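Standup notes
- HV: blocked on the assembly model, inputs below
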Amino acid sequence: MKRIGIVGGTGYTGAELLRLLLAHPEAEVVTITSRAEQGREVAELYPNLRGITSLRFDRPDEAPLADCDLVFFATPNGVAMKQVPGLLAQGVRVIDLAADFRLHDANQWAEWYGQPHHCPELLDFAVYGLPEVNRQLIQEAQLVANPGCYPTAVQLALLPLIKHKLVDLQSLIADTKSGVSGAGRGANVGTLLCETSENFKAYGVAGHRHLPEIVQGLAQAGQVDIQQVALTFVPHLTPMIRGIHATCYGKLSVAGTNLQELFEQHYIHEPFVDVMPASSHPETRSVKGSNLCRIAVHQPLQKDTVVVLSVIDNLVKGAAGQAVQNMNIMLGFPEQLGLQVTAVLP
Amino acid sequence: MKRIGIVGGTGYTGAELLRLLLAHPEAEVVTITSRAEQGREVAELYPNLRGITSLRFDRPDEAPLADCDLVFFATPNGVAMKQVPGLLAQGVRVIDLAADFRLHDANQWAEWYGQPHHCPELLDFAVYGLPEVNRQLIQEAQLVANPGCYPTAVQLALLPLIKHKLVDLQSLIADTKSGVSGAGRGANVGTLLCETSENFKAYGVAGHRHLPEIVQGLAQAGQVDIQQVALTFVPHLTPMIRGIHATCYGKLSVAGTNLQELFEQHYIHEPFVDVMPASSHPETRSVKGSNLCRIAVHQPLQKDTVVVLSVIDNLVKGAAGQAVQNMNIMLGFPEQLGLQVTAVLP
Amino acid sequence: MKRIGIVGGTGYTGAELLRLLLAHPEAEVVTITSRAEQGREVAELYPNLRGITSLRFDRPDEAPLADCDLVFFATPNGVAMKQVPGLLAQGVRVIDLAADFRLHDANQWAEWYGQPHHCPELLDFAVYGLPEVNRQLIQEAQLVANPGCYPTAVQLALLPLIKHKLVDLQSLIADTKSGVSGAGRGANVGTLLCETSENFKAYGVAGHRHLPEIVQGLAQAGQVDIQQVALTFVPHLTPMIRGIHATCYGKLSVAGTNLQELFEQHYIHEPFVDVMPASSHPETRSVKGSNLCRIAVHQPLQKDTVVVLSVIDNLVKGAAGQAVQNMNIMLGFPEQLGLQVTAVLP
Amino acid sequence: MKRIGIVGGTGYTGAELLRLLLAHPEAEVVTITSRAEQGREVAELYPNLRGITSLRFDRPDEAPLADCDLVFFATPNGVAMKQVPGLLAQGVRVIDLAADFRLHDANQWAEWYGQPHHCPELLDFAVYGLPEVNRQLIQEAQLVANPGCYPTAVQLALLPLIKHKLVDLQSLIADTKSGVSGAGRGANVGTLLCETSENFKAYGVAGHRHLPEIVQGLAQAGQVDIQQVALTFVPHLTPMIRGIHATCYGKLSVAGTNLQELFEQHYIHEPFVDVMPASSHPETRSVKGSNLCRIAVHQPLQKDTVVVLSVIDNLVKGAAGQAVQNMNIMLGFPEQLGLQVTAVLP
């Protein structure tokens, strides 16, 4: 049993991590912290956990994080970068579910996140935790930057095309739709049921923080500079709790490729990517609560625009599940351990 | 008071027409027909209408349609084309809310709708009922083809760009999201609450019937042949009852235009198109139950991709409301008569 | 045109009042106030009102309330009682949509609302604004206490039985279900979509503030002391935006009454109470956005328990609509003026 | 590994059974049948199962049911009673999830289900599968009648009070609320998203088939004749997929009992009944996908009406999960085997 800590346990991501880790046969959560809820039973906030765990939220500064084998940060952006150096120095491995270590460029980070980076020297030390790209590096990583939810869905959709240089990198569009849980458990008017139910809207069209993260990943896959990738990224808020659906578009620069076969081959060994049969339309409910990403590739009317549809659960493959997948890789467990959950449907 | 008939009144479109016409000061609904529900009170199916109307569904073949000034068809595709010629011959004006008269080309109609057209000679006689394009023609029309819901949202979003030849017609993408009412009131497993709630998916990516209708309209606006317009059209099903959100993309072929001003000018005299301020994100709930189309135009990061967001209520501006707007134009009423409804929010 | 003011316009009740009054032919809203949003356009918070009004929120202390013919308070409990005496002194008539003047007994008020009452001398001066009970008194009232949402639904369901002394007053149960908008527009975790969607729960079983209000009304109808009424009141939160469904139970103390006829006769002249046919099940959607209360009375298996089902829109008949109905009565307008809205369905 | 068959696998109950059994370490589903979908992959209907199972629906008359150790019937009412006698004769044990064997009285069955019972001789042979009541009998049972969803929630709420003779059996009320999945996967207009979302209504107030089942169970617990139990049962349809909330009322016939302690003691050894702390309000989401029933007992204002709140997942503890619990008991497995699933929240 490995000793695991969770910093920032009141949000949906932290709670989802806890749910997954409580069912994981090789992980023992020894502490989960919260400044606002310290001393309170986790099951009071998350009634599904009543009877499953008697954990209470620890004060962050009293939590036995240094005694952990691995610590997850499920904190707001900007928190982990202040505490991670200390933990690393004590030999604790870290997975950060926030954005602190996702971008390589400290200036870009400062620009998109509105504050200077606290430890830019770690940006190249951190490994971007998309196992389908960086599995080998993750094994030895001391610090893993867990990808954002949209970046996971969009990169998995576009990587096969870009790796094989099949699309015009100046033509990319990612039209993404997220359930409301992506906005977190904060008390905001904008995510009340009365404001989001029976409603659909775009947001952040002028520029969303996940854009540079996606572009960085796509540029790396295409072995080009980030300036060579032009991605239009439009996120939307959908009246449901969980799920991301990415609809990605690109102009094919090469004709005649069997895209279905290409995608199937690309992901043939991936335990958590399901390339669906030709003509499929993946549904977000089919992955709810599961760590799967389901993908379908289309070439409508055989024209030169390729459409890739991908779905994930934003809190699982888009956050906590992928973090556990990374933990499994880092700690040498089978990659699917504790993650073989089937979506509950309907 | 004009005498109005509704053929096919059990579906959501027919019921919405009835709701609007019951509140219209110059229209009297003299008959609403249904084969399946003949004799039954409309208010039994639509409990909101209890106390508002005592109309019962008439047998189609007994309904006094010939005595009407204007008849709406809210029937499945393929029904109106069989009955309309007879009504026109009796001097009754017709608005068809189905697709029977939307395409000019009978072969194209047959291909997309899977049956030969019954009266191809009427295809050029019918006027496509998008008032923002064809207001003058609608005034004198005997037969109006009311546009589809997606085509309304997408055309209103793209027309200003195309009229002014600002976008590459080969680069168009319409990523559209619809509430479930767009699928009608039929008893289908696919539209059960348990199959659609907490779920998001695309459908019809290989080709949707609204595609040729949109392309026809865009080509006409751009004064080009339909072959010169390449539109990728991907509709999605959203877990809500009403509303369409179209997210439209195009490559600008001309730089430097003030798109905000262009859109505002283009629609400055339109009573039912609201161009929102720069940086806006229109919400479907803001038009629920209303005949408005709200539009916002964006140029993310000042690059050469333009993003136009438009929202309508699929059953109002996307169907029954636009039909009443057309009726107002045809019968010489003020265009907004009976249509000045504010969306109920939250 | 009467000059109308709204104090506290950012909440759902204030916004609903504004929506109704903007469509009212005899009312002109001259001011709507908000401390938090002063200076901001109302349509920014309520995008459905864009193009309908250009009102901005006024600072409460600068608003021309004294120049109004009638002022509505849509403020949190405890606010109106501090400002109403001054307005009354200036001859302004007031309708309070909060609970400040609903209870006659200042001690009871203090007990349930956790603070002493600021002007107990007004408690008997205020008229309880349930038109179906107090229409005559409302006509001349200077201060009307608009009923709570649950109290409206429950009283309208039970009054006919109690007036005719048909039920055991010690046996009453009101099992009520409300949409989430009843909890207001405050930024609370408990009313986030992610906390309330796909969920159903009771709350406040130990005692809800609407209980004494209902008991007071029922006791008055039965001409008994409030101690003689024992009502068990259990509210529940339902995953929808609008609507209250009250399921009320009582033991019949007299056998053989035709309850259907009794209810129909009792409400025969009421414009906003619809007694449905025997065996009906009223639906909340049938009154969404409308001021109607629909009621059905059942006597299952002909036993001695009567079940009365009633539905209202909590923001209309349960708040703003009833307030406008009261305004109409106070100002001598036809009672239905501006309130003849049909629910939008689906 | 035991060989398991499922008859009637296209409905939500059958699919939920399959989901649970696929994760069960001692069960192997050897056949799942469907007349309508024979030959089709189960994962086409239930996309969550894609990659988890390659089972296809078998023709009912070709399925190897006789080779099974145990067969579940997840068929419409009236189907199992025709096939069960044959299977029992071949030594196959059966759990029927429909209502065929729930009532002991064939006349009562015929009256409520509208057809004569096909094998009334089995009604006393069948064991009513509520483990919290009949665990011992279930162990040896050849035929188990799995309880209905409402009967499970209501009986678990009321049994402690009735066993201890604390309530007036003539005063019982069960006001129950169910998600839409309780109505099944049939193609009905009444369960479309557009008809049920943003809506709340009662149904079947005049008499619902689960009423005699509940009364039978309560009478047995109270050791009285069914005529001595008067239960008013009012079910409601709630706009969500899964979950039942029962709000049960009774007049206490004995004062002074510590009800909290009574409930805790009554269920202290039950693995799937969670008596919550005093003043709790159980939420349906806390048991979604899980086999738990969570219960809270209240005595509002210390008066003589007791209120018991209970929640279950209608498809799990209300159907498939309870069936697996019964299977575990019958086959000698640990009762919780394969059922230790935590609800996914949010």
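- HV (later): unblocked. Chain B has a mean pLDDT of 97. The first strand of chain B starts at residue 2 and ends at 7.
- Next: hand off to the docking folks.
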